[in-house]
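Subject: sequence -> structure tokens, single chain

Hey, anyone have a minute? Need the predicted structure for the following. Not urgent.
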Amino acid sequence: MDIDFTKRSTYYYELPQELIAQTPVEPRSASRMLCMNRSTGEITHHHFHDLGQFLRKGDLLVMNDSRVLPARLYGVREDTGSPIEFLLLKPTGEKVWEIICKPGKKARPGKRFRFGDKLTAEVLDTTEDGGRIVRFECEGSLYAVLDEIGQMPLPPYITEKLQDRERYQTVYARELGSSAAPTAGLHFTPELLEELKAQGIGEAFVTLHVGLGTFRPVKEDDIRKHHMHIEHYTIPAETAEKIRQTKENGGRVIAVGTTSCRTLEGAAAAYGGIRPCEGDTGIFIYPPYDFKVIDGLITNFHLPESTLIMLVSAFAGYENTMNAYKIAVQERYRFFSFGDACLFL
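Reply:
Had a minute. Here:
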């Protein structure tokens, strides 16, 4: 039977609600890791701290060093005192941001809002997809104020309060700008990174600021009609050179997360290869797709019918991917942002 890779329902699987991880495991590297050989489809079960067993000297891990903004704000409308929630998406000017808010009907252009005693905002305009453009007013840096009063924008399927907000950051996060964490990297500890380095495994960083579009469901049954979100990325010269050398020496480039994968493949599609660059990507990867850069992928388990499971299906093979998810459910793996990891090589 022919598989129609353009149909959304092709990527559906049954997931029991109780397998959606609500809290991270401790330590980070104690999470489980399903490993698949893409050539044979063979699956084995491990823990993330076993990662070095699957990597070789000369391999290169490419990680996304974007840091999550504490971008969720709770405040009140100045004239009525009624409550409002803002979620910052991206800056469009000096202290001017595109946001989404609820309830939206309270946030018409000209309305003003207060968040504690250090931050106010005025709505300037509405966006095509129902967001708002707002100008913030505060003393000094907006980022410093957000760090003080903002809350982590956890995905909607996580309902438990996060006790330590650093647990929604990777240990190597440094470039502030994401609305969601690049979660495949949450499993690394400084100790594991040192172990891998001692083993001769290289590390390199890209930056892709993760937007909330990563959680946007695919609504069209023909996925080719899906409007893919755009995200900003940077590939530094040092990373481009490390990738070139790794390929030249026969090593493997392993993307840590779908965001690193989309950065590398998006740049390769735009420029015909990897070079130092900065830009926006809206690359939508689904089967069949010819990967130009990556040889391996570390990722978490993704939502049914999401663009992320489509990407994994393109890389690992559709039947391999759906089989891996079926087995992960049977084996009671933990799913989504705070869940367990997969390694596809």
